[in-house]
Amino acid sequence: FGTKYCILRMCTPFGTLIDGAQSYGTYSLFRNQALERGTITVFGNGEGKKTYTHISDICHVLYEAAGNAAMENEIFNIGGVNHSLNEFASAIADELDCSVEYVKWPDLYHEIDGGETVLNSDKIASILDIKYQEII
Questions:
Q1: CA 134, CA 56: separation in Å to the nearest integer?
Q2: Cys-Cys link to 119, which of 56, 77, 133, 135 (CB 3.0-4.6 A)?
Q3: The pTM is what?
């Protein structure tokens, strides 16, 4: 039908643009665990890596992609920073002086987790100049 599209895939967003609001996803979960219990719980061995993208970087990509002729009828991965859950949990634990514990994956959580998900964003980087914010 001649419909123009641009598909943008992302992995794990973090951060917020609203003062006083909590961050999204894993960062918020780990930080809240550290503050409330003094321990961060990681399922499995924590070695799997994911791409984390700050919400403002996601908004920037959405804005730049809208109406960008070079991005028409294409699929892109939105990049970010790649970290394992170990790196992530350890950084928060160090900051908040708490411990990290590793537990067996609960069956339901293991079924819905995407596993190691590192997105290659070379294609979008060839069109947009994006400096992704670090999470840790």
A1: 12
A2: 77
A3: 0.83
